[in-house]
C-alpha cells in the first residue's frame, strides 16, 4: 500500500508537474499566438501609402509636370498615372511629396476637411509677398477676415454696381475696340478688367496712379509664384518691387481718402477702399489696420485679373469654334437688349443670361483658369484605403475632374448644355474651387464676364486669326499670340 502510495504520490506529483507544464506551455503558446495576431492586425490596420512614384530626390517629377503643364498637357501627366496607379496616387511635384485627388468624392472630402485634416500651403516666397492678406491666413483668422471681404463681394452688395460696370464696359469698347479690324483680345480684356477693378476698389479710372499701378500689378502677378530669386532681372525680384510700389501708391490714396472723409467728400466714393476704411471691422471690432488694407487690396488686384481674363478669352475662342452656341448667346442677349431701350443693364438682366453663363462655365470646365491648388495634411489619416502622412501635400486638380469621361461624357466636346438644369453632380465642376476657400470673387467674375459678352456679341462678329493658336499654362492659361481676333462691327 505504502509503496503503492509512494508510487502513487510520486506519480501524482509527476502528473501535477506534467499537467502544470502543459498549462504553462499552453498559456505561453496562447500569448505568442495573441501577440503574433496583434502584430499582424497592427500591420494590417495601418494602410499603405498610395501607389505612385516620388521620382528623383528633391525635384521628384517636378520637371516632367511643369513641362506638361506649360504645354497645356498636364492632363496627360495625370492620366498616365491614374491608368497605372488608380485615382489616388503619390508623386512629387513642386519639390514635395504630394498626393493627387481627382474624383468628386475626393474633392468633397478635401474641401470638407479644410482646417481639420488640411490647410492651405503657399510657397513661403509667395506668402511673403502676399503679406497680411486673407489668402495667407488659415483657420478661424482666415474665416473672420474673409467674412469681412465677402460683405463687399457678395451678391447683395454687387447688386447696385451692375449699371456702373455696364457703363464702364460700353466705354471700354468705344475706346479700345471701335474702329479696329484686328485685336489682341486677351491683353485688351486684361486692360478692361484692370480698369474695372481699379474703379470698384479705388474709384480711379485714369491718371498717373492708374498707369503706375497697372505696370506694378503686372510685375506682381508675373513674379510672385516664380523661383524666389531676389536679384535684379529675375521675375520674383520685379514682383517684390511691384508689390512695394503698389503699397506706396496705396499709402497716398489712403491719406487722400482720409482727408476727403474729414472734408465730408466721402459720399463721392462707393468702392472697396471706402468700405474698408469706414464700415469694415477686424476680429476685435476695431477699424482695419492700413497694412492689412493695403496687402488685401494688392492681393485682390492680383487674384481677379488673370483668372477672369483667361476665362473670358477661352469663351471667345469656343464661341468662334462653335457657331451654334454663339447663335444661342446672341439670341439670349438680343432678347434682353430689346427690353432696355438704351438703359444700362441691371442685376435682374444678368440673372436672365442663363445660357451665356453655361457657356462661361463650360469654357472654365475645359480650360480651368486655376488647374490645381495645394493643401498640406496637418495630421496623419486614412483615406480610400491609404495612409496620408502628416506634412504631405494633397492637391485637387480641376482638369483631372473636369476631363473625366465618367463625369462628363465626351469631355473634350464644348457643350454648354451640361450646365443646364441642375447642372453637373456636386464637386465635379470645381472651376471656382470649393469649401471654405472657394473663390470669393466668383459673383463679381460672373457679372463682369456676362456684361462683357453682352456688349461683345451685340456689337461684333469675330474670327480667330489662327484657330489653332497655342495655349501655354504658366501658371494660368495664356494664348501664345494673345488671342488675335479679326473683328467685324455689326
Ligand atoms: C473666372 C474668374 C475666376 C476664377 C476661375 C477663380 C478661381 C479661383 C479658385 C479655383 C480659387 C480656389 C483656390 C484654392 O482652392 O486654393 C480661388 C480663390 C480665390 N479667388 Fe478667385 N477666381 C476668379 C476670379 C476672382 C476674382 C474676380 C477675385 C477678386 C475679386 C478672386 C479672388 C480670389 C481670392 C481672394 C481667393 C482666395 C480665397 C481664400 O483663400 O479664401 N477670384 N479663385
TrEMBL record:
Species this protein is from: Sphagnum jensenii
Name used for this protein in its record: Cytochrome P450
Stored SUPFAM superfamilies: Cytochrome P450 (SSF48264)
Pfam families hit by this protein: p450
Source organism, top-level taxon: Eukaryota
Similarity field: Belongs to the cytochrome P450 family.
Keywords assigned: Heme, Iron, Membrane, Metal-binding, Monooxygenase, Oxidoreductase, Transmembrane, Transmembrane helix
Keyword Membrane recorded: yes
Coiled coil: none
